[in-house]
Amino acid sequence: MSIPEKENSVSGTKKKVGFAQAQKKISSFCAYQERCEMEVRNRLEEWGLAPTEADRIISKLREQDFLNEHRFADSFVRGKFGLKKWGKVRIRQELKMRELPNPLIQEAIDAIDGEEYLDTLRFLADRKWKLTREPDLYKKKAKVTRFLAFRGFEPDLIRDAVDWLASERDI
What we know:
By secondary structure, the protein is mostly helical. The chain has 10 helices and no strands. It has 3 domains: 16-63; 69-110, Arc Repressor Mutant, subunit A (Orthogonal Bundle); 114-168.
C-alpha cells in the first residue's frame, strides 16, 4: 500500500458520496429529526460534495419540506426549554451558532409562555438552593446565580429569584 492510499484509509478522512446517494442519505438524515441548513451543509461537506451540488440538494430538500428552519427553530426551542430547562439567553446563543436569522430566532423564543418560563426559573432556583450545602449566604447566592446563568436565564430574573430565596429561606 502506498503512502497516499494509507493516509486515505485512516479514520477521520472525508467519505466520498455520489450526488444521488447523498440526496437519498440526507433526506433520511432530515426525516429523522428537524435540521437546520448549517447541519445539512456540514454533513454534505463531510461527504465531499461540491458547494454547488450541496446548494442543489438543499433547495430540493426545501421544496420537499424536509428542511424547514421555522419548524427547526420551534422544535429546538420547545425541546431545550421543555426538556433541558434552558433559558432564553442560552437558546438564543445556540440558535445563532446554527446561523439562523435573528427574526426567526426571536419568533421562536417569543413562543415560550412567560408564566411557564418564570415557574421553571423558580423551580430550578429553589432546587439548586436546597441542594447547595454552603453556610455562607453570599457564596450560596453566588453558586445559585452561576447555575442559573449557565442555564441561560436573564440576569435580572436570576437576581430577583435568588434575592427572594435568600429572604424566604433559612440557610
